[in-house]
Amino acid sequence: MTELTQLTIAKARDGLENKDFSASELAEAHIKAMEDARGLNAFITETPEIALERAREADTRRGKGKGKGEALGAMDGIPIAIKDLFATEGVLTTAGSHILDGFVPPYESTVSANLRSDGAVMLGKANLDEFAMGSANVTSYYGAVKNPWKASTGKNAGKDLVPGGSSGGSAAAVASNIAMAAIGTDTGGSIRQPASFTGIVGLKPTYGRCSRWGTVAFASSLDQAGPMTKTVADAAIMLQSMAGYDAKDSTSADIALPDFEKALSGDIRGLKVGVPKEYRLDGIDEEITRLWDNGISWLKSAGAEIIEVSLPTTKYALPTYYIVAPAEASANLARYDGVRFGLRVPGESLDDLYRNTRGEGFGDEVKRRILMGTYVLSAGYYDAYYMKAQRVRTLISNDFKKAFADVDVLLTPTAPSAAFAIGEKQDDPIAMYLNDVFTVPASLAGLPGISIPAGLSVDGLPLGLQLIGRAFDEETLLRAAGVLETAADFTSNSGGLK
Amino acid sequence: MSIDKETVQKIAYLARIRVSDAQLEPLAGEISGILEWIEQLSELDTDGVEPMASVAEMTLPMRKDAVTDGNCQAAVLKNAPDSEDGFFAVPKVVE
């Protein structure tokens, strides 16, 4: 039998139903893996007792003998990691920040509550960039996360690499078989880029598909939770559980959920796949272009029609994002004042208390973004920066609307490079921001995007391809992703993890 | 557009973040770099384009004016640094 930690959700579901193993055995195997891989620093808080308790409950529901018993569905008994940006009842929630010291929410985020009520087993709270601000998981107060992959050749051979970010702990946990799946969040690429860097599947659903209630807010018009999994089918299964209307989030979409797993028909004959010409950046690594061309030919062989499209505002997406996201962050993070919860650093006056707490409690990248956001929203600059960015955002969204009049999905690379070394790009914010050049445009337009592991770099590191879909058409996105996954045959081509 | 140390100090005060004198110069450099990079947006003609605040094409829903939560004083106070008689006890925040 395959080792329990190597199973996908779909296989574990079958195994649990056949009583090949119990949820408790699954939990124990993953807890052991989590302990053995502490060197990756993928978790901020491990919750083995909670995992074992929920696994026992899952086993009780399934009962003895073959069959489902009273199982709650596909996620019942599945061990997962939860990005430490989701409030979890009775469990420390840090957002990777010093400023939330000791914060134990008395409530559960809607997304994690949905998974919990479907029987998912929480292994722990995954490390992340502080307040989800970063593309390398190096800004966490709890230290950098290591990518389980290592380069076999090249300038970074043997070095510790970043797992991408901000959902770096979630990505590392899934890639190293510590967690069968993980919840991430994506504001400008924080699910898709780490998925690409670690060779897993990462799905950012349409804005509004998953509730934001109980998720620590970064940029509210962009933040969206999504699954990070080993396969496309698992992403479909997990999204089914996470998603859905929630009256507690006023931007949550009151749209019935389709059966996402059923969408994976494997048939994309006649599907129109757009290839945006503006994503062919000057000076991009040749291996990224080659990967993209492979993806195009795989989809073509599967019967899709490839159409070149134009998204003319693409190059302005990243600077737009770096006005909109910091502006929203500066407003959202105003609540951390040291008064009612979390860290407090006293001062002579009330202003001093605020300034001391926030000066000590926030890390450098978070401070930089709050200051940027404060500046672009300040009197005299609001129109020149913030309003301008909001107008450009409309143009970006219109680009996609035009493209989707002619095509069903778009195919692009996920990230402009493979994983880089911890410490690289640290002193150059813009170089770091460029990691999200291919993921940010869809975020600004609120569209669903998925990263699928599609090949290896010359140095032996995973590279992902991104598919972008129409709003609330995750079904077509998943269907195309499934075909791409089969064609890329990533797991067997790479020989699994090194 | 580049900004100087004094501007950083001003926005740091607006954001209520203590920044040491030694950090002002590097921050001014970094933020100026980002602002210069952002400057490329001025190449785009956005006259007459509606600003987009949210991608959600929906109007804000109204909910029933009903109590749906509450009676959880102990849970609410759990994260209070200090509490007295069921209230948060905090430093004086009205000056």
Q: What would you note in describing this structure?
A:
The complex is a heterodimer of chains A (498) and B (95). Chain A has 498 residues and is an alpha/beta fold. Chain A is built from 16 helices and eleven strands. Chain A is 37% helix and 12% strand. In chain A, strands 1-3-2-4-6-5-10-11-9-7-8 form an eleven-stranded mixed β-sheet, with helices on both faces. In chain A, helix 2 packs antiparallel against helix 3 (48-62), helix 9 crosses helix 11 (364-377) and helix 9 (317-332) packs across helix 12. The longest helix of chain A is centred in the C-terminal third of the chain and has 25 residues, at 382-406. The model of chain A has no long low-confidence stretch (mean pLDDT 95). With 95 residues, chain B is mostly helical. Chain B has a domain at 5-43. Chain B is built from three helices and two strands. In chain B, helix 1 packs across helix 2 (21-38). At the A-B interface, helix 9, helix 10, helix 11 and helix 12 of A face helix 1 and helix 2 of B.
